[in-house]
Amino acid sequence: MKALVYEGVETLVFRDVPMVAARPGEHLIRIRASGICGSDMHAYLGHDARRPAPLILGHEAAGVIEDGPQKGRRVTINPLVTCGSCTACASGRENLCASRQIISMPPREGAFAQFVAMPDRNLVTVPDNVPLEKAALAEPLAVSWHAARLLLEALHPNTERHALVIGGGAIGLAAALALRAMGVKDVTIQEPNAARRAFLTDRCGQQAVAEFQGMVPLVVDAVGYAATRAAASACAAPGGVIAHVGLGEDIGGLDIRRMTLQEITFIGTYTYTAQDFRNTAQAIFDGRLGALDWPELRPLSEGAAAFHDLRSGAVAAPKIILSPWA
């Protein structure tokens, strides 16, 4: 099969690789759409020790079951494979499973390939009227759905619900969409890139600004750098909540003294639970997250160029989706 292989820092090669083999209880899936995530970009830049070269990246995917009694079933893929039996899994917090695996990290190759193998419990059926390119957004949208849910659960019920999302990439936009779907009407996205800011406003119908002034009770840091954490801790109102999603860099930025004196809650959020993923997929199918027509579609064979364009800031769209069969 063909795959886009990460072979070293800023080096991706579209080439032949051995055909993936399905384990017992897994389905072989013909990938139709696979999105580029910020974590893929971190690996591409050599910033993620969890993703050593050579490796097939990609974990935001949808496709069609290739063989067996369910052949032809259209599915979107929850890429987080968990044990299903530990305390975390039994309590519905599968994202905290100590033995969790995710495709695009060893030992599981990713979805920038023509085929991938996944357990049945990781698959959600996609209705015939929903394009698979849209269904592939379930994974990044679920990340933000999970963060938005935890954010709102932690907020005092008597607090007005106004939100700031820092970062206008796919996760930031998805956080804004999730918050709106959960009833938060006043959501602002802070995005320094002028082209992306215009795209968010004109194409996605979002309220986007270069710099936010003031304080709000709900803040999402969808970037995760010291500077954005500093902005989050400055913009969170007393008694407010910060949900930290981005993994840009490890340390720095938070104003711990202010957060302590003003009782600001900080929540680290990672991926999603299985129920969050299913709820997000259903919200996509029901149209509650909008048209979702903002990704840019490219062939997987041109994936190296797509990563280069993202690296150089030349892409206004919050998401590029690659198709292995284009």
Automatic annotation (TrEMBL):
Residues 170-283 form the Alcohol dehydrogenase-like C-terminal domain. InterPro entries: ADH-like_C, ADH-like_N, GroES-like_sf, NAD(P)-bd_dom_sf. Keywords: Metal-binding, Oxidoreductase, Zinc. Its cofactor is Zn(2+). The keyword Disulfide bond does not apply. Residues 24-128 form the Alcohol dehydrogenase-like N-terminal domain. Belongs to the zinc-containing alcohol dehydrogenase family. This is Threonine dehydrogenase. It comes from Phaeobacter inhibens.
